[in-house]
Every structure is written in C-alpha cells, then in structure tokens.
Automatic annotation (TrEMBL):
Coiled coil: none annotated. Residues 4-91 form the Pyrroline-5-carboxylate reductase catalytic N-terminal domain. Pfam families: F420_oxidored. Keywords: Oxidoreductase. InterPro entries: NAD(P)-bd_dom_sf (IPR036291), P5C_Rdtase_cat_N (IPR028939), STEAP_metalloreductase (IPR051267). It comes from Rhizobium anhuiense. This is NADP oxidoreductase coenzyme.
C-alpha cells in the first residue's frame, strides 16, 4: 500500500510526522515544487518523500490536507479517481453554507473526485495536537472516521491503528459524519475534542 499527503502546511506536516514516527514511507506534495519541500521533509524524517501533486495522486491512499478552497484544483491532477481512497482532512470553516449547496463539505469534495472512496478523518484535531505522539495518558488519541464506503473505512481504520491512534467510526457522512463537519462560522461538536481510548 502506498501513501501520500497532498498539502504540506501545518496539518500535512503533522501527518507526515505521524508516518515518520512509525517509519512508514509517505509522499508529500503541495503547489510548491518538490525541491522546495525537501528541507522540511528531511527534517521530519527519511521516510517522508517530497514529490509533485501528480506523483502524489498515484498513491493508493491520499490524505487531502490542502485548504478546502483548493480541493477542486487538486481534483484536476487525475483524469479518473475511480477506486482511489481519499482521506478528507480538510475543514470548511468560514465557507458560506450556500457555497456548499446544502451538502456537507465532505460530500462537496466527493462530488469533485467522482469514483473516489472518500473517508473523513484527521480533521478534528488542531495541527499542533496532531503532531504529538498519539500514545499518551495510558491510551491512544482518538481519530474519528466517517464514510459511505465501509471497505474504505476499514482500510483507513487499519492505517489509523498502524499510525498509533484509536479509530472511532461515526458511520455515514450524512449521519454521524456531521459531528466533524465545519459549517460557515461554526465548528461541529466533535471538532477539537481531544479524546483518548484507554488500553485494557
């Protein structure tokens, strides 16, 4: 399984640290040239590989960590998203509800990536918290997942476990997934909830 992070701002770098902690190779990309990302990627760890967005989009699992407003531009990197697992780590805070056509932000992104197997995850924690070791307080930091694709949810849950977090499924995006969807100038109830699952 190959992994990529599209977007190398605070959230993208925090997630790259999570992969590096577990010695899992991950491609990182942004609108900037791959060479411009190299110093920061090297500082995080040797398994963090800078690339172009086109190269990153070839991965089996892609974490979308670009600003929400840039998702349509990112969608153009592939002619077909069929079968790709895309983890939506974006937040649409500040985006007027009318701009979302009454949909959740994840549903809007799913429409822009037809055929992709979209899973909402890694968006509810601030980047500074996400960059920390998830093993803390005798437990593991929780990562919420929501998706309309059970198989993709299971695959992403396995990755979340591998990265050292505790996955908690909220069900479908239009149902439990609403608990992690920012709308207009409001945050959903589970955003910023830094929860832990105790080890038995």
């Amino acid at each position: 399984m190959s992994y990529a992070i599209a977007g190398f701002g605070a959230v993208g770098q925090a997630l790259a640290r999570a992969f590096a902690r577990k010695n899992i190779e991950v491609t990182v990309a942004s609108r900037r040239q791959a060479e411009a990302l190299a110093p920061q990627a090297r500082a995080i760890g040797p398994t963090v590989v800078p690339a172009t967005l086109q190269e990153a989009a070839k991965a089996d699992i892609i974490v979308l960590a670009v600003p929400f407003s840039e998702h349509r531009e990112f969608a153009k990197t592939l002619t077909s998203w069929e079968g790709k697992i895309v983890i939506d780590a974006t937040n649409a805070f500040g985006v007027p509800v009318e701009d979302l056509d009454g949909l959740s932000s994840s549903a809007v992104i799913a429409k822009a990536l037809p055929g992709a197997r979209l899973v909402k995850a890694f968006n509810h924690l601030p980047s500074g918290v996400l960059a920390e070791d998830p093993a803390i307080n005798g437990g593991r930091r929780v990562i919420f997942l929501s998706s309309d694709d059970e198989g993709a949810t299971a695959t992403v849950a396995a990755l979340v476990e591998e990265l050292g977090y505790a996955p908690v499924s909220l069900g479908r995006i239009a149902e439990g997934g609403q608990l992690v969807q920012a709308r207009d100038r409001s945050w959903a109830p589970l955003i910023f909830q830094d929860l832990f699952k105790k080890e038995r």
